[in-house]
Amino acid sequence: MAQEQFRPGFSLAGAVDLESLKHKVDAEPGTEGGAPAAGGYVIDATEQMFNSLVQNSATYPILLFMWVPTDNRLFPLATKLGDAVNAMNGQLQMARIDISQAPQIMQAFQLQGAPALFALIGGRPMPIIAGMPSEEETQQIIDTVLPQLVQLAAQAGVTGSAPYMGGAEGANNAGAEDGAEDAEAAEPAIPAAHEEAHRLAMEGDYAGAAAAYEQVLESDPNDTLAARERAKALLLARSANADVREVREAAAANPDDVNAQLAVADIDMIGGQIQDAFDRLLDFVAAGHKSEIEPVRQRLLEYFLIPDATDERLNRARRRLATLMY
């Protein structure tokens, strides 16, 4: 499917809703009295990251939440939407954009204030609602609109899974004792050595993240978390912006082309179809392409780092790869 890139304008927008100044809070997100923290499948995006969001929306659908993170009137809505998106386990990503710091986006989307919701699918923005929704409207968005966005994305060939960023559990209960305890226990802090790589991944610079994780591994080759995250970053750097339909058509049209099969296996991995990715490459070698086993082996070794080490699919795929090699 040809992707039509959406480009934000460059003229300045009008003033942000001044009413938000009356409801301004100074607490940091995720702390008592502050905005709900990002995490899981919810990210905070900037104006500079918008083109990356557009590109990523060719792989998985994105819910754009235009808000002001210091306006406490928006916190309950942000919490409900964030919880709903996280409950969908990567079927879509929620990108929160602070419009007080994004005048070009305000102009491009013709926003008069916050909040506003848009879907971004295949680079195309789709308006959902402008202004504060009622409780009934919010529930309708959660129960009906979000699943419909996933269906629309699938019809457009956008079937990948959004990357999980961690730190979601308990994050949207900031200020509540139980929520704070859950957040503390659920996700370990990002290791200091990983911070730069993690930041680059959050911003959609997957190639940069992979290089940063490589530096971590040079210092500590036994850092299994860095190895896993590097493998994920390499996968997304290669194929996060691929046109899913074109990749699958190319693989079907070129069954003997190892690069075409590697490309579609990447798409399967991004979409969470791990067994399909393993089987595709192993079946390719078994079908008389043993001369291509080395690039297949290298790609599979990278894939093997991504699932949980106890995943039975790993053991089966490793055994089969060993059999094909000898």
Automatic annotation (TrEMBL):
Signal peptide: none annotated. It comes from the Bacteria. SUPFAM superfamilies: Thioredoxin-like (SSF52833), TPR-like (SSF48452). InterPro entries: Thioredoxin-like_sf, TPR-like_helical_dom_sf. Pfam families: TPR_20 (PF14561). This is Thioredoxin-like protein. It comes from Bifidobacterium magnum.
